[in-house]
Amino acid sequence: MAMRISRPRRSSCPIATSLDIFGDRWSLLIIRDLLFTDNRRFSDFARAGEAIATNVLTDRLELLECEGLIFRRPDPADGRKFLYELTGKGFDLAPVIVEMVIWAARHERTAAPPDLVREMERDPKKFVKGLRARWGRSSAGA
Amino acid sequence: MAMRISRPRRSSCPIATSLDIFGDRWSLLIIRDLLFTDNRRFSDFARAGEAIATNVLTDRLELLECEGLIFRRPDPADGRKFLYELTGKGFDLAPVIVEMVIWAARHERTAAPPDLVREMERDPKKFVKGLRARWGRSSAGA
DNA sequence: GCGGTCACTTGCTTTAAGCAAGTAATAGGT
DNA sequence: ACCTATTACTTGCTTAAAGCAAGTGACCGC
């Protein structure tokens, strides 16, 4: 709610800029949830797998909204809740996340479903296209 | 030098695992240097663009080596220096970094050379292949 | 040998993350 | 209308990480 300030950029390098925006332990996990699950509420994120502290979650949601990666709207079905959705800018992180999944599946012990990973590896662009179709339907192309 | 301990993994999710390995403000900048420049020495990284503190740099180099993304060897030409190089596992982060460059160039104000970005966008796999050729030559395929 | 460079260290301050408990607004049942 | 549970945060505190400035010992070129 309060006027949030985005993190200052360390340099004009695109990698450094990216890291200034989402280069922490939690931001990409929220994006992951929004891309691959139907977690859309505060409590969904809080309960998802890795146990983020609620104060950190609040902070990260504000930051991501401030950077234009997600947006927030009241849940029409429940006045206590908010729904968080990916913006186009946020959705465009899908290729980054897909490549991270491929990398981790190749080099680390993970729970990534092998079939899904093979599909990502075979044609990442096509895979992202499939995600985009679902995203377009759910968020009305924000 | 001391037996380094890798960060514990928060979950078996491939994204979470990736972030546990390189999800901080500096690791990917070191990988970037190793991919796109010929910075190979401690002082190169320390002086590169974003001014990392030397104690943090030491820590990050140890961690990246411990995770098997880079390796270290004495500089044959100067006994005070070490040369840091990407392993295959480290090089395989190239697609992740390429997608981050594309994202940042599209959505943020950066200094990424437009021609290079277009080349990345047109055919990311081919671009990575070009990088791999240079890497193979410099690090003898570690 | 000597002055300078190199890869780190050390000690300290500041910022961020993590934990546990609390709160105001709302939902849903009676 | 009233009561209880739930939800999205807050607050206060502790712990871990990042940042800063100043060292240190090995090693280079001279």
Task: Characterize the structure shown.
- The structure is a homodimer of 142-residue chains.
- By secondary structure, chain A is mainly alpha-helical.
- Chain A is built from eight helices and two strands, in the order H-H-H-H-E-E-H-H-H-H.
- Chain A has a two-stranded antiparallel sheet.
- In chain A, strand 1 and strand 2 form a beta hairpin.
- In chain A, helix 6 packs across helix 7 and helix 6 packs across helix 8.
- The radius of gyration of chain A is 16 Å and the shape is globular.
- The mean pLDDT of chain A is 92.
- The structure holds a DNA duplex (30 and 30 nucleotides).
Helix-strand blueprint:
2 copies of one chain form a homodimer.
Chain A (H helix, E strand, L loop, with lengths): L13 H9 L4 H10 L5 H6 L6 H13 L3 E5 L7 E5 L1 H4 L2 H14 L6 H9 L1 H16 L3
Antiparallel strand pairs in A: 1-2
Chain A binds a DNA duplex (30 and 30 nucleotides) through helix 3 and helix 4.
Summarize it.
With 142 residues, chain A is mainly α. Chain A has eight helices and two strands. In chain A, strands 1-2 form a two-stranded antiparallel sheet.
The arrangement of helices and strands of chain A along the chain is: HHHHEEHHHH
Number of helices of chain A: 8
Query: Biggest interface, and residues per chain?
Result: A-B, 44 and 44 residues
β-strand number of chain A: 2
N→C terminal distance of chain A: 20 Å
From the helix content, strand content and strand pairing of chain A, which structural class follows?
Answer: mainly alpha
Strand arrangement, major sheet of chain A: 1-2
Q: What is the molecular shape of chain A?
A: globular
